[in-house]
Every structure is written in C-alpha cells, then in structure tokens.
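ok so i was messing around last nite and threw this chain in just to see what happens. nothing serious, just curious
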Amino acid sequence: MKTLLLLAILLLSHSAINAAPLPVIARQSLVLNVPRGGKAAAATTNASSATKPASTAIIEGLKNTLASGLAAACSKTLLAPFDTIKTVQQDVKGGTSLKLMEAARKVMARPGGIFNLYAGLGVSVLGAMPSVGLYFGVYSYCKRTIGPTFVKRFGSEREDGKEQFCSDRAWQTFSIALSAAIGNTVASFSRVPYEVVKQSLQTGQYPSTANALSTMWKQGGMRSFFPLGSVSIQMVRDIPYAVFTLLSYEYIKENWVLKKSVDDPNNRWLRDMIAGATAGGIGSYLTNPFDVIKTRLQTTDIAGAALYGGSISKCAMSVLEEGGAAAFLRGSVPRLLHKVPANGFFFVFYEFFKRALNSE
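result:
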C-alpha cells in the first residue's frame, strides 16, 4: 500500500509538472526544434528525441497501472455479491443447477447471513489491484510501442519503398489485440492464487480468509494456490476475454465516446460507463464456457484434485456429460450481471483516474 501511495504521489507530481504551461520561449524552441551549439547539440537533441517515445510509454504505463488498480478496487467492492453467486452456481456438480435466487439463498443460509455475499472481497481487492494494474500497465506500454512499430515497418510509414502490407487501421486493431494478450499473459500468473482463495471462500469451503490460507498451506503448500491446470485455464479464459473486451471498448471509445464528448463533455462519464459495460458484456458472454471450466479446476481441493488431474479437456468433457452444451453457460446470467456493471464502473473510474493523472 505504501508503494502505491508513493507511486501516486510521484505520478501526480509528474502530471502537475507536465500540465503547467511552458514559457513562450520554451514552447517555440520545442516546436521549431532549433538547438544551440551547432552539430554536436543537434546530435544530442536527436538522440534525446529518439528516447522520448520510449520514456513516454513507460510513464504512461505506470500511470495506467495506478489508475487501473484503483479502478479495480472500486468496481470489485461495488459488485462482489454477483461474483459470489456466479461462483456458487458454477461449482454445483452433477446434472442439477441453481437459479440466481437459489444460489443467493444458499450463500446467505451459512453462518454470517447476507455478509457471505461479500466472502473473499478482501482477497479479491488486494489481489486485483496489482494484477489489474500490471495488466493495464503492460497493455498501455505495448499498445504505444507495438502499433507505431508495425505502421513504420509494414504500414504507410515504411521506408523500403514497398507497398504497405495492410491498412494502418488494421495494424492498430492487431496491436490492441496483441497488447491485450501480452498484458493478460503477464497478469494471469499473479491472478491465480487470489482467484483460488476467493472462490474457495465463496463456495463455503472455509469460514475465513485466515483459515483458508493456513489450511490450504498445510494441505498442499504452494501447490494449493496453484492447482493443476489453474494457470493454463486462467490464461485460456482471460486472454480471449481481454482481446474481445478491449477491442470492443477501444472501438466504441474512438467512434462514439470521444466524438460525442467534443460537443457534450459534461456527460463523458456516462458514455465511458456505457462503452465499458457493452465491451464487458461481449467479452464475458463469449468466454463463459472457459469460466465454467476455470471455476471447476480452481475449486477442487487437494484430496479431489485427481478428479480432473488438472486437464482442461477432461474437465470440459465432464461438464459436457453432466449437462450438455447448456452446462457451459452456467453462471452466465450472474456473470453478466456482475461483469456488465463491473466493467461500466471500472472504465468510469479508470478514465477518471487517468484524467486525474494527466494520462493521454
């Protein structure tokens, strides 16, 4: 937490400095790019300008790390009950299934009542902040470096005189998808332990976070927090989810949010929410089958780990045999009820914190 506060102070200071108006002379020298001191100074200026995009990408990546981490904490707290109900629905074994209210009543029937809907919230928030921060930080950095690189080497700015491979818009779309995949690949490894603990608490396996951590450690050590197949299924679910969600969000933002906000800047927050909610709904529904498998693999305790042996395909076949293709849509309603508003709130907070940090 101290590290996050220090990072916030440093980035806000950097933003304040950048936001301050430059003197007229300084602005003119930057625009004209006329160095003093002849060729030596010119060479120094060119070298400095060459490193500027890389340093800017790093700074923007750090700003996005902080903004997304804070946004994740806010949205997770608001919508934790839907995430708990979704997990309980997906954890039901056999041919039976629980409806939304049935799952909610099952959760609240435990000792603790309605507060059980917030089971695992502390673990979820503490785990999500660095994980989401890392994800969006890497995504922002990659998007700022990969896109221009593709355009320069294969797009309209290529210097070898050859015809461009495809349009700059296509390269931009590809760079968003690739950046989302890279960011989520990095973040998936840090996301698994808190997902395992959170879902174990949501399904009622342990009465408290402390009990879950101590019991899991005694039963299987570090392996308890990384069940067989958990990292691979986390990536199988999260990478497509990230690609679908961010492609949708960036498209809606560019073609609707930013254009409408020119004439009506006061309602920018509402458009950010609609764009985020729509993108989150698309990504969530398309990847729900992977989420069902992930929940099964990550909520199986050490004693029953041999049930699937960490095999994604074996788990998938088991789900299919239990309830057919419809079984892969278990929990889709509460997942959408959680993910749609969660993404709406997340992107509102995310864009707010980005503007507060003077991030582009």
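not much to say yet. The two ends are 25 Å apart (CA to CA).
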